Amino acid sequence: MSEVNHTEAASLEACPPPATEAPDILTSSQLHALFDILTHWETYAEVERFKDSTTIAHYGYPFMRRDSAGTASYATRSSAPLLADLLRSIVLPLPGVRDLPPEFWHVRFQGVLTKLSDAELSESYDKGALGTRKTLATAASVVHEAVSRGILGGLPRHPKRGLNGPYDRAKAADLAAAWNDGVHELVYGSLVDELFSCAAQRSNIEDHSPAVQAAADYVIIHLATFIHHVFVLSPEGPYLLKLVEYIHKLIPYTMIRQTLRIGNAATMISGMTRLLLAKMGVGAVSNWFGLTQNADDGMNLLQRIISLVLSWDSSEFRKTVDKIEKSTRGPLKEHLAAIREYVGRSRLEHESSRNKSVHSHASIIAVILGNASPGSLESLSASQHSQCLEYYSALLAIRDREEIAKALCRQSPDLFSQAVREAVGAFDHIIRSLHEKIDLREHVSAAETFVADFIETSRAKKTANGISNNTATAFKESQAKTRAPSIEDYVSLFRRNRHMLYNWLHQVASQCPEIRDDFRAWANDTVKVFRQSRRVPYAPIPEAAPGAGIDTQRKGAAGALSSNLQALYAAVPASMKSPVLVAVDAHAAYLTALETLSLRRMQHILDDMPEGGILAVDDKLEDVASKSSISGPGMFLSRWQQLLDDTVVAPDVPSGPLRSGRDVKGSLAEGKTVSAAAKDGWDPSVLAKLAEMDAPRPPDVGVVVEALGHQFRDLLVDLLNRKSADGASRT
Fold it and tell me: Where are the transmembrane segments (predicted)?
């Protein structure tokens, strides 16, 4: 508890000591904080569960499980209730997606996910760094948890909001108000229909109202902050930019435009499918003639792009492996042989070694070599141990890419190509209508232009010598004339390119009324899942004692789930309630601090942005650099960073304390390279630390998860089953 209290004292106002006997009724602020804690924990727990291939089999509809006799059925207790609810509520009813055959989900898609799970891709714990998959998985998780909270708790209903009021687009509070007003009218008003009608009539959807215009600014700033966090603050950012550049160069934009020139829609779709999915391998010919069965029939263009990118990536890691193997002062050959042999072992052996490393506080290399030859560690110097870690990390990276390529590009039967072909078939009627009435070549060119602009924006920017702002320390001495891309740069990127999106929406809405009406109906049905009135309370709210249980800080509490959480808390043993309340109160204060910080950061960006989002020609470079924001709004950023910081990482010495993601922040996995434009640019680790200087540290809420986590998961499964039963009865 001393560490928790120290953190709270450093970042938040100290909470008053709990009463001798904890109250049985939670206030609205406490319910709101409890809801946030449990959804945050459960969402990422579900993501982590997908490392096991049985998770997808027990997901429930639309994926299937098979018993020992081969009988297929849908699991009744979902292994991922939050993800399943999101998929069923929003994704599956989407036009085009709803036309996919059942086999797409429980054969093709499920098969690919199972292959990837069985591949046992590497862990951040072993590699000693937060890799690309960890970065993107945690990012997706925090976005998903926000949507799931909306589905579970719902949006409170208020009187109708007027959208033509005076919204000052230079004030963060007004942008936030416009966003809240717009969301309320989307869910409870007629804004969905109005936006579709506006898109059909005008080429700029922001012309609808001042609220929509301000809400668009709100979205752009948050999106720019998210992209900046991925590509600038994350150590994986320059590496991801390199992958984007590779893919951008491999996409045959010219061939795609030529194919789209074909006037007949059926011929065009067939030509595009052939371009992307036709296989030219010898196995394809021999299978077609019946000379072989299920022989490797080669790769199509789409798979070749994936395979080439992964192969290029692996080549960099192979250089690291070769360098260490040829080093005259490197580890002994028997050391490297033991590591290579260990990489190919089973999942069970890997998990056993990892658990041994955790409990003994030994590096994973120490465990591997100790198991192979107990006395081999004595001859290993500190430098050789470091090289072994680098060697092991590079081997894992190579294996990861080979396994991903195998699952997507070299499987027989080829589930990936079949899935793409079925997806094209499901969207066939939409593609035909678009091709018939819209010149798609214009939008392919727009996409190509945007990606090129994005790549250029993500590169280091020229500035002047003698930068006076506090980001100067983030730049390498050899590059005093450059600065990292700022959030304002990405805001400008989206602002100057938003007309491409608006033009696309206008052409579809005005030229393809059947598609417009189809998506309008889906949107109107989808926003209803965020209405609180759609949910019947699972359990009654206990009667509050006089003066207890109500406050004005969080009027929404946990929304439609308030009674559920109150019932769960009431069942907590009395001895656990006080520590649970201490953690919940600390988290409530933390959320309030994050909201205040988010608005302050957004205001800072607005103050830096000239009208229109483009830097003025006469702005001095020194002034531009001093206005470059490296932190932006969005509570999701702090929750995302918390997931990364809490990641457990193995010691980097033979015997020593376990590390966390916070300790390796900014460290790129061994063997990874970055794009040429970023090699002499900024230091993400320094920038990330600067961006978090004003952020409060999250309190330790492990006691809440321990007391209520599994009960909350049971509640979600029950709610999901009730919702499925209600949907089936209405059908």
Answer: none
Pick from 158, 161, 187, 185: nearest CA to 531: 187
CB 148 within 8 A of CB 82: yes
Smallest Cα–Cα separation from 275: which of 248, 300, 251, 304? 300
DSSP per-residue string spanning 80-131? -HHHHHHIIIIITTSTTGGGS-HHIIIIIIHHHHHHHHHTT---HHHHTS--
- Listed in sequence order, the residues at least 6 apart from 290 whose beta carbon sits closer than 8 Å to its beta carbon are none
Cis, bond preceding 235 (omega within 30 deg of 0): no
CA–CA distances in Å: residue 22 to residues 4, 164, 545: 20, 47, 13
Contact call for residues 98 and 92 (beta carbons, < 8 A): yes
Three-state secondary structure call for residue 655: strand
The pair of structure tokens assigned to 284 is 């394809």
184: helix, strand or coil = helix
* Backbone phi and psi for residue 155, each to the nearest 5 degrees, phi listed first: -95, 130
C-alpha distances (whole Å) from 481 to each of 467, 556, 680 are: 9, 50, 11
CA distance 308 to 304: 6
Looking at residue 611, what is its pLDDT? 55
Using DSSP's 3-state secondary structure scheme, residue 318 falls into helix
Longest CA span, the chain: 83
Alpha-carbon gap, residue 11 to 67, rounded angstroms: 52
Q: What are phi and psi of 667, to 5 degrees?
A: -90, 130
Give the number of C-alpha atoms closer than 13 A to the C-alpha of residue 414, restricted to the C-beta side.
Answer: 24
> What is the distance between the alpha carbons of residues 102 and 430, in angstroms, rounded to a whole number?
20
Blockwise average pLDDT, block size 10, the chain, 731 residues: 39 45 81 95 93 92 88 92 95 96 95 93 89 87 92 90 90 95 95 96 95 96 93 84 89 89 81 76 47 59 86 87 90 92 93 94 93 81 92 93 92 89 92 91 95 93 52 45 86 94 96 96 95 56 39 63 92 92 95 93 87 42 55 88 90 92 75 51 76 87 95 94 73 52
User: What is the Cα–Cα distance from 347 to 25, expressed in whole angstroms?
Assistant: 46
Helix boundaries (H) for 458-573:
487-511, 513-527, 562-570
- CA angle, corner 609, sides to 607 and 613, nearest 5? 155
Token representation of residue 151: 């589905």
273: enclosing H helix or E strand:
helix 265-277
Exposure string (b/e) for 370-387, b if CB count within 10 Å is 16 or more? beeeeebbeebeeebbbb
Backbone phi, psi, residue 660, to 5°: -125, 170
Contact 416, 684 (CB under 8 A): no
- Sequence-separated (6 or more) residues with CB below 8 Å from residue 349: 342
At 649 the three-state DSSP class reads strand
Nearest 5°: phi and psi at 293?
Answer: -130, 130
Helix (H) or strand (E) holding 717: helix 702-730
